[in-house]
Amino acid sequence: MTQSTSTDDLTGFVRPGQGAGLVDVVRRRYLLNLLVRKEVQVRYRGSVLGWLWSYVKPVTQFLVFFVALGVFLQLNGSIPNYPVYLFSGLIMVNLFSEAFSNGTRSLVDNAALIKKIYLPRELFPVSSTLVALVNFLPQVLVLGVVCIFVGWSPSIVQILGVLLGLVIIIVLAMGLSLLFGSVNVSFRDAQNFVELIVLVATWASPVLYQTALVAQVLPEWLMVIYQLNPLTAAVELLHAGFWLPTTNGAGQSPDGLLMYGLFALLISLAILAFGQFVFRKLERRFAQDL
Protein backbone atom coordinates (compact mmCIF):
# COMPACT_ATOMS: atom_id res chain seq x y z
CA MET A 1 0.00 0.00 0.00
CA THR A 2 2.87 2.36 0.85
CA GLN A 3 4.51 1.72 -2.50
CA SER A 4 1.30 2.41 -4.49
CA THR A 5 0.73 5.65 -2.56
CA SER A 6 4.21 6.94 -3.38
CA THR A 7 3.64 6.32 -7.08
CA ASP A 8 0.21 7.94 -7.29
CA ASP A 9 -0.07 10.45 -10.11
CA LEU A 10 -0.65 13.85 -8.48
CA THR A 11 -0.53 15.82 -11.70
CA GLY A 12 -3.08 18.62 -11.69
CA PHE A 13 -3.40 18.70 -7.89
CA VAL A 14 -2.32 21.78 -5.98
CA ARG A 15 -1.31 21.74 -2.32
CA PRO A 16 -3.84 23.81 -0.31
CA GLY A 17 -2.70 27.38 0.21
CA GLN A 18 -0.32 27.22 -2.75
CA GLY A 19 -2.60 28.70 -5.40
CA ALA A 20 -1.89 31.57 -7.77
CA GLY A 21 -3.76 34.27 -5.86
CA LEU A 22 -5.86 36.63 -7.95
CA VAL A 23 -5.02 34.59 -11.03
CA ASP A 24 -7.03 31.74 -9.50
CA VAL A 25 -9.98 34.10 -9.08
CA VAL A 26 -9.92 34.74 -12.83
CA ARG A 27 -9.61 31.02 -13.54
CA ARG A 28 -12.59 30.27 -11.31
CA ARG A 29 -14.88 32.97 -12.61
CA TYR A 30 -17.87 30.68 -12.19
CA LEU A 31 -17.28 30.59 -8.41
CA LEU A 32 -16.90 34.36 -8.35
CA ASN A 33 -20.15 34.71 -10.27
CA LEU A 34 -21.93 32.42 -7.81
CA LEU A 35 -20.67 34.38 -4.81
CA VAL A 36 -21.66 37.73 -6.30
CA ARG A 37 -25.13 36.47 -7.25
CA LYS A 38 -25.61 34.94 -3.81
CA GLU A 39 -24.63 38.15 -2.00
CA VAL A 40 -26.80 40.29 -4.23
CA GLN A 41 -29.83 38.00 -3.84
CA VAL A 42 -29.64 37.57 -0.07
CA ARG A 43 -28.67 41.16 0.71
CA TYR A 44 -32.25 42.40 0.94
CA ARG A 45 -34.09 39.10 1.29
CA GLY A 46 -37.05 39.57 3.61
CA SER A 47 -36.83 43.36 3.29
CA VAL A 48 -39.94 45.37 2.42
CA LEU A 49 -38.06 48.03 0.44
CA GLY A 50 -35.59 45.58 -1.12
CA TRP A 51 -33.30 47.26 -3.64
CA LEU A 52 -34.59 50.70 -2.65
CA TRP A 53 -32.29 50.50 0.37
CA SER A 54 -29.39 50.94 -2.07
CA TYR A 55 -30.66 54.48 -2.60
CA VAL A 56 -31.69 55.34 0.96
CA LYS A 57 -28.17 55.83 2.35
CA PRO A 58 -26.74 57.97 -0.49
CA VAL A 59 -29.94 60.05 -0.73
CA THR A 60 -29.96 60.59 3.04
CA GLN A 61 -26.28 61.58 2.99
CA PHE A 62 -26.93 63.91 0.09
CA LEU A 63 -29.83 65.65 1.83
CA VAL A 64 -27.93 66.08 5.10
CA PHE A 65 -24.79 67.46 3.46
CA PHE A 66 -26.73 69.59 1.00
CA VAL A 67 -28.74 71.27 3.74
CA ALA A 68 -25.74 71.66 6.07
CA LEU A 69 -23.21 72.78 3.48
CA GLY A 70 -25.19 73.83 0.46
CA VAL A 71 -27.86 75.84 2.31
CA PHE A 72 -26.44 76.77 5.72
CA LEU A 73 -22.86 77.41 4.54
CA GLN A 74 -24.13 78.67 1.16
CA LEU A 75 -21.91 76.46 -0.99
CA ASN A 76 -24.92 76.06 -3.25
CA GLY A 77 -24.34 79.63 -4.38
CA SER A 78 -20.55 79.52 -4.71
CA ILE A 79 -20.31 76.18 -6.59
CA PRO A 80 -22.41 75.96 -9.77
CA ASN A 81 -24.78 72.97 -9.82
CA TYR A 82 -23.65 72.05 -6.32
CA PRO A 83 -26.21 69.19 -5.98
CA VAL A 84 -24.60 67.43 -8.99
CA TYR A 85 -21.11 68.15 -7.62
CA LEU A 86 -22.06 66.78 -4.21
CA PHE A 87 -23.90 63.67 -5.36
CA SER A 88 -21.24 62.64 -7.90
CA GLY A 89 -18.59 62.74 -5.19
CA LEU A 90 -20.74 60.97 -2.60
CA ILE A 91 -21.54 57.94 -4.75
CA MET A 92 -17.85 57.47 -5.55
CA VAL A 93 -16.85 57.61 -1.88
CA ASN A 94 -19.75 55.31 -0.97
CA LEU A 95 -18.52 52.79 -3.55
CA PHE A 96 -15.09 52.83 -1.95
CA SER A 97 -16.49 52.65 1.58
CA GLU A 98 -18.83 49.73 0.89
CA ALA A 99 -16.26 47.73 -1.07
CA PHE A 100 -13.52 48.34 1.52
CA SER A 101 -15.68 47.67 4.60
CA ASN A 102 -17.41 44.56 3.27
CA GLY A 103 -14.19 43.22 1.77
CA THR A 104 -12.43 43.53 5.13
CA ARG A 105 -15.16 41.49 6.85
CA SER A 106 -15.63 39.01 4.01
CA LEU A 107 -13.24 36.34 5.29
CA VAL A 108 -14.63 36.38 8.82
CA ASP A 109 -18.21 36.37 7.50
CA ASN A 110 -17.42 33.27 5.41
CA ALA A 111 -15.46 31.46 8.14
CA ALA A 112 -17.66 28.35 7.99
CA LEU A 113 -16.99 27.89 4.28
CA ILE A 114 -13.27 28.59 4.55
CA LYS A 115 -12.83 25.97 7.30
CA LYS A 116 -14.67 23.26 5.36
CA ILE A 117 -13.21 23.37 1.86
CA TYR A 118 -10.30 24.90 0.02
CA LEU A 119 -10.95 27.49 -2.65
CA PRO A 120 -9.13 30.70 -3.57
CA ARG A 121 -9.75 32.85 -0.51
CA GLU A 122 -9.26 35.99 -2.60
CA LEU A 123 -12.71 35.23 -4.00
CA PHE A 124 -14.36 36.72 -0.93
CA PRO A 125 -12.81 40.23 -0.94
CA VAL A 126 -13.11 40.38 -4.74
CA SER A 127 -16.78 39.36 -4.70
CA SER A 128 -17.52 41.99 -2.03
CA THR A 129 -15.95 44.64 -4.24
CA LEU A 130 -18.04 43.54 -7.22
CA VAL A 131 -21.24 43.55 -5.13
CA ALA A 132 -20.46 47.15 -4.15
CA LEU A 133 -20.02 47.93 -7.85
CA VAL A 134 -23.43 46.38 -8.60
CA ASN A 135 -25.01 48.65 -5.98
CA PHE A 136 -23.14 51.64 -7.42
CA LEU A 137 -24.43 51.27 -10.97
CA PRO A 138 -28.08 52.28 -10.30
CA GLN A 139 -26.85 55.35 -8.41
CA VAL A 140 -24.63 56.48 -11.26
CA LEU A 141 -27.55 55.90 -13.63
CA VAL A 142 -29.70 58.26 -11.55
CA LEU A 143 -26.85 60.79 -11.59
CA GLY A 144 -26.61 60.53 -15.37
CA VAL A 145 -30.36 61.11 -15.83
CA VAL A 146 -30.25 64.20 -13.59
CA CYS A 147 -27.22 65.54 -15.47
CA ILE A 148 -29.03 65.14 -18.81
CA PHE A 149 -31.87 67.31 -17.52
CA VAL A 150 -29.42 70.09 -16.55
CA GLY A 151 -27.61 70.13 -19.88
CA TRP A 152 -25.00 67.38 -19.62
CA SER A 153 -22.85 67.13 -22.76
CA PRO A 154 -19.60 65.31 -21.90
CA SER A 155 -16.71 64.71 -24.27
CA ILE A 156 -15.17 61.31 -24.96
CA VAL A 157 -12.19 62.26 -22.83
CA GLN A 158 -14.45 63.09 -19.88
CA ILE A 159 -16.29 59.78 -20.19
CA LEU A 160 -12.95 57.95 -20.29
CA GLY A 161 -11.96 59.92 -17.20
CA VAL A 162 -15.02 58.59 -15.38
CA LEU A 163 -14.02 55.02 -16.31
CA LEU A 164 -10.46 55.71 -15.12
CA GLY A 165 -11.77 56.99 -11.78
CA LEU A 166 -13.95 53.90 -11.43
CA VAL A 167 -10.99 51.58 -12.12
CA ILE A 168 -8.90 53.47 -9.55
CA ILE A 169 -11.54 52.97 -6.85
CA ILE A 170 -12.10 49.28 -7.65
CA VAL A 171 -8.37 48.47 -7.66
CA LEU A 172 -7.75 50.52 -4.50
CA ALA A 173 -10.66 48.99 -2.58
CA MET A 174 -9.68 45.48 -3.69
CA GLY A 175 -6.07 45.95 -2.60
CA LEU A 176 -7.03 47.38 0.79
CA SER A 177 -9.62 44.63 1.27
CA LEU A 178 -6.99 41.96 0.69
CA LEU A 179 -4.62 43.69 3.11
CA PHE A 180 -7.00 44.49 5.96
CA GLY A 181 -9.18 41.43 5.38
CA SER A 182 -6.24 39.09 5.89
CA VAL A 183 -5.10 40.97 9.01
CA ASN A 184 -8.66 41.02 10.34
CA VAL A 185 -8.72 37.21 10.51
CA SER A 186 -6.22 37.25 13.37
CA PHE A 187 -6.75 40.76 14.73
CA ARG A 188 -10.39 41.89 14.65
CA ASP A 189 -9.28 45.43 15.50
CA ALA A 190 -8.57 45.81 11.79
CA GLN A 191 -12.24 46.27 10.91
CA ASN A 192 -12.54 49.00 13.55
CA PHE A 193 -9.55 50.73 12.00
CA VAL A 194 -11.23 50.44 8.61
CA GLU A 195 -14.30 52.20 9.97
CA LEU A 196 -12.08 55.14 10.94
CA ILE A 197 -10.57 55.25 7.45
CA VAL A 198 -14.02 55.22 5.87
CA LEU A 199 -15.15 58.00 8.22
CA VAL A 200 -12.20 60.19 7.23
CA ALA A 201 -12.43 59.35 3.51
CA THR A 202 -15.45 61.60 2.89
CA TRP A 203 -13.67 64.62 4.34
CA ALA A 204 -10.16 63.83 3.04
CA SER A 205 -11.29 64.04 -0.60
CA PRO A 206 -13.06 66.88 -2.46
CA VAL A 207 -16.58 65.53 -2.07
CA LEU A 208 -18.14 68.35 -0.05
CA TYR A 209 -15.78 71.14 -1.09
CA GLN A 210 -13.58 72.09 -4.04
CA THR A 211 -9.88 71.36 -4.36
CA ALA A 212 -9.21 75.08 -4.86
CA LEU A 213 -10.13 75.70 -1.20
CA VAL A 214 -7.53 73.14 -0.10
CA ALA A 215 -4.87 74.79 -2.28
CA GLN A 216 -5.41 78.05 -0.39
CA VAL A 217 -4.47 76.41 2.90
CA LEU A 218 -1.92 73.66 2.20
CA PRO A 219 1.67 74.34 1.12
CA GLU A 220 2.51 73.27 -2.44
CA TRP A 221 4.34 70.07 -1.50
CA LEU A 222 1.50 68.92 0.75
CA MET A 223 -1.00 69.80 -1.96
CA VAL A 224 0.80 67.43 -4.33
CA ILE A 225 0.44 64.62 -1.78
CA TYR A 226 -3.25 65.47 -1.38
CA GLN A 227 -3.83 65.22 -5.13
CA LEU A 228 -1.89 61.94 -5.36
CA ASN A 229 -4.42 60.38 -3.01
CA PRO A 230 -6.21 57.86 -5.29
CA LEU A 231 -9.57 58.73 -3.76
CA THR A 232 -9.04 62.43 -4.49
CA ALA A 233 -8.12 61.74 -8.11
CA ALA A 234 -11.09 59.38 -8.60
CA VAL A 235 -13.60 61.86 -7.15
CA GLU A 236 -12.21 64.69 -9.30
CA LEU A 237 -12.39 62.50 -12.40
CA LEU A 238 -16.06 61.83 -11.69
CA HIS A 239 -16.63 65.55 -11.16
CA ALA A 240 -14.95 66.25 -14.49
CA GLY A 241 -17.15 63.70 -16.23
CA PHE A 242 -20.54 64.52 -14.70
CA TRP A 243 -20.47 67.90 -12.97
CA LEU A 244 -18.12 69.94 -15.17
CA PRO A 245 -20.12 69.48 -18.44
CA THR A 246 -23.24 70.86 -16.69
CA THR A 247 -21.67 74.17 -15.60
CA ASN A 248 -21.48 75.87 -19.03
CA GLY A 249 -17.85 76.75 -18.46
CA ALA A 250 -18.36 78.11 -14.93
CA GLY A 251 -16.69 75.08 -13.31
CA GLN A 252 -13.03 74.13 -13.48
CA SER A 253 -11.06 70.94 -12.89
CA PRO A 254 -7.71 70.93 -11.08
CA ASP A 255 -4.64 71.38 -13.28
CA GLY A 256 -2.95 68.12 -14.28
CA LEU A 257 -5.98 65.98 -13.37
CA LEU A 258 -5.20 63.32 -15.98
CA MET A 259 -1.60 63.05 -14.79
CA TYR A 260 -2.70 62.73 -11.17
CA GLY A 261 -5.27 60.15 -12.25
CA LEU A 262 -2.61 57.99 -13.91
CA PHE A 263 -0.35 58.28 -10.86
CA ALA A 264 -3.31 57.35 -8.65
CA LEU A 265 -3.86 54.24 -10.76
CA LEU A 266 -0.22 53.24 -10.34
CA ILE A 267 -0.46 53.77 -6.57
CA SER A 268 -3.65 51.69 -6.43
CA LEU A 269 -1.98 48.89 -8.40
CA ALA A 270 0.97 49.00 -5.97
CA ILE A 271 -1.46 48.73 -3.03
CA LEU A 272 -3.17 45.80 -4.75
CA ALA A 273 0.18 44.03 -5.21
CA PHE A 274 1.13 44.66 -1.56
CA GLY A 275 -2.30 43.53 -0.36
CA GLN A 276 -1.97 40.31 -2.35
CA PHE A 277 1.53 39.75 -0.92
CA VAL A 278 0.35 40.12 2.69
CA PHE A 279 -2.73 38.02 1.96
CA ARG A 280 -0.61 35.13 0.67
CA LYS A 281 1.69 35.34 3.69
CA LEU A 282 -1.19 35.15 6.19
CA GLU A 283 -3.43 32.79 4.24
CA ARG A 284 -2.03 29.62 5.82
CA ARG A 285 -3.42 30.61 9.23
CA PHE A 286 -6.93 31.52 8.08
CA ALA A 287 -8.61 28.20 8.90
CA GLN A 288 -6.80 27.97 12.23
CA ASP A 289 -7.51 31.55 13.36
CA LEU A 290 -11.12 31.49 12.20
Short description:
The chain has 290 residues and is mostly helical.
Structural commentary:
The chain is mainly α and 290 residues long. The chain has one domain. 73% of the residues lie in helices and 0% in strands. The longest helix has 31 residues. The N terminus is likely disordered.
Number of domains: 1
Structural class: mainly alpha
Radius of gyration: 22 Å
Q: Terminal Cα separation, in Å?
A: 36 Å
The low-confidence runs, each spanning 5 or more residues with pLDDT under 50, are 1-6
Number of strand elements = 0
Keywords: Antibiotic resistance, Cell inner membrane, Cell membrane, Membrane, Transmembrane, Transmembrane helix, Transport
InterPro entries: ABC2_TM, ABC2_TM_bact-type, ABC_2_transport
Transmembrane segments: 48-72, 123-152, 158-181, 193-218, 257-279
Subcellular location: Cell inner membrane; Cell membrane
